Amino acid sequence: MNESSQTSSKAGPRAPRRDRGHARVEVLLSAAAQVFADKGYEAATTTEIAAAAQSSIGSLYQFFPTKQAVALALIRQQSADLGARLAAMAEASAGWDVDEVARRLAGALVDFRASHPSFARLIDTPGAPEAVVLDVRRGMRLQLAAILAPHAPALGRARLMAVAAVVQQVMKSAVALNDDPAADNPSAARAALAELREMLRVYLGAALA
Amino acid sequence: MNESSQTSSKAGPRAPRRDRGHARVEVLLSAAAQVFADKGYEAATTTEIAAAAQSSIGSLYQFFPTKQAVALALIRQQSADLGARLAAMAEASAGWDVDEVARRLAGALVDFRASHPSFARLIDTPGAPEAVVLDVRRGMRLQLAAILAPHAPALGRARLMAVAAVVQQVMKSAVALNDDPAADNPSAARAALAELREMLRVYLGAALA
Amino acid sequence: MNESSQTSSKAGPRAPRRDRGHARVEVLLSAAAQVFADKGYEAATTTEIAAAAQSSIGSLYQFFPTKQAVALALIRQQSADLGARLAAMAEASAGWDVDEVARRLAGALVDFRASHPSFARLIDTPGAPEAVVLDVRRGMRLQLAAILAPHAPALGRARLMAVAAVVQQVMKSAVALNDDPAADNPSAARAALAELREMLRVYLGAALA
Amino acid sequence: MNESSQTSSKAGPRAPRRDRGHARVEVLLSAAAQVFADKGYEAATTTEIAAAAQSSIGSLYQFFPTKQAVALALIRQQSADLGARLAAMAEASAGWDVDEVARRLAGALVDFRASHPSFARLIDTPGAPEAVVLDVRRGMRLQLAAILAPHAPALGRARLMAVAAVVQQVMKSAVALNDDPAADNPSAARAALAELREMLRVYLGAALA
DNA sequence: CATGAATGAGTTTTCATTCAT
DNA sequence: AATGAATGAAAACTCATTCAT
């Protein structure tokens, strides 16, 4: 899926020649996901990542030239995963009505961010290389647009992309509401999330009409 | 609420007792705002803040016991400012219809975040002390609720707070769209913002009805 | 008593012209005694000393040119006090037998160190200027010798000074035993002190015979 | 007792896993001994210790998490050494009379402190963690008691510990007399030391009788 | 004299990255 | 490849001392 594009990339992991190395890379990346999710990009240390992967600092640098490269590989991996989910949804969404699209989108993206907690941290935080982050964001918007397009044949390209951008932001908000224990009580958090879903439904209903 | 009790606070600035001290604190805080806005909390250095304020590092630590205290003081100062703006809006909003409320809210908050670029960085970033950040967020939600309440007399308290939480997230999204040069071109950014405003209008229209 | 010698000293407090200044110096010195006793010379800060004296650093430096000068003045003051006590004892000791001399010496010196806790810290610690410390120690030995001499007319000068040096060390030990909560229980500390007194008694009995 | 569990200790050195690491730790510790002996705990700097060990500051912190940990490791190392000497003496002392015990004890402990000049500085100074220091002192008293016990079968446990505590203080005094160039001349220092030895002899003769 | 702000060299500690084994 | 030691620039923070008011 991505073995050819990754190898040619400047900052990606060096191509491991053997399965052992490949496995090590995977372990390192999931350790990195843990640590980045817990502490954020800046506060995470390469030593801690290596330790969490039961590996040594030397090993980590065998596969990743810099700390940034680790974050980058992680972003690429996770955004590929996200891309696959959105692609699947694009195929399935043909028969849905707008309400269902709204509901499914909300569900899918909240799920994704919940199961990839480092994703938000890395993508909304300084430290990760701008260019890649922007690419990922644009890619996601394009996929959202692809999902929305069939339900709004009348919308121009520009307007469609604007809608996609708004939907993307709503997704981010969902995660924020989920994480923030600031709501006076857990039920308040749930209520806010329901409210957000409602906003998306109403809005898409109006925008795609 | 807390503008008078700063001295007794654990991590607040040491109260200056001379005019020169007050002036220095102001200069330091605006330098800090610059630097935090540019680099984020972690990457900002106290040395750089002091230099930007044309003072020595010793002077900074004369008034702020830690780097975190600087961020804190900044958050408090700026959230007091935001609070004042929302309070003013609450008074003026009596005669507005829902559409106008949506428009004004969007305008005010986007303006605020645009003129206080460090605010978002500090409040959405680890490093700032959780308790204060949560307080600020809750305070803002309460003020939003106060603005919305008169236009939705039928809404229960819980529902109202959920709506306020959603509006708060929309505001954050507006800033993100504003900052993110990811949109393919400047006009796309403007379109997305307009779209966001539209979402708010439609949503508030439905929710407050 | 000491107003003329102190003024001429290079590092002593500047002669205060007024009573107000004089009082301030006293307060500063007793604050310094507190702080030095608590933290030792190095860890004590001039700011803390000034604060403990309800004064400002500026004021402290009005009277003492350096931190070392504060310690010095304190040592001088306290050793003058000690000197007075020993002088008094020298006069009174004519009629005592050796046992009584031992008992009184032990009592007097333990008392003194207990009521001047900073003395030991400053005199046994680096930081205080060597020359003064050595002077103080020598002075104390001379006074001890003066007390002991009448009870050991046969002893040569050199031997007498050696005995005085040993007695001085025993005094220091008494303080150490007093302070050290290492003894398994308080009664053990008392037992050790009694033992020390016994050692002094036996030893002086033998040495002065 | 504690020679095997260093790794699990909270503030101990990180265990080196390579020969090079072990060697480096040794070098660092002896450099630290030098510097601590010269300047005392507070005035010694980690930078200077690293330089004296011809390593980088980073290497020091690779093995010791804090400056205090360096002092701690040194105390532990040296007190283990001292413990071994005392243990050896305990075995050999069976056939000695009290005079010989006094002489040998004095000799051994003065020797030890003379060859480990940092020991006294660290153990009598604030900065070293209290708990460890107290442990070391208690251990030493126990060993002294073990040496003295056979020569005073009639002494109760409590009395024996008190005697041991006194002997310990005498040892400290010996070092102080040794170090202190305050005596009017070198021969005076020697005389005082001889006098101290005499005190110990007389005292132990009386106490153990 | 009193006060508290200003200064900056110096201290401990961290951490990404490189190297030797 | 794997490991862990080596490195040193850089960061946060301290504190004796000087200065302006």
TrEMBL record, chains A, B, C, D:
One of its GO terms (molecular function) is transcription cis-regulatory region binding. Residues 1-10 have a biased composition (Polar residues). Keywords: DNA-binding, Repressor, Transcription, Transcription regulation. It comes from the Bacteria. InterPro entries: DNA-bd_HTH_TetR-type_CS, Homeodomain-like_sf, HTH-type_TetR-like_transc_reg, HTH_TetR, TetR_C_15. PROSITE patterns: HTH_TETR_1, HTH_TETR_2. Residues 22-82 form the HTH tetR-type domain. This is TetR family transcriptional regulator. It comes from Roseateles saccharophilus.
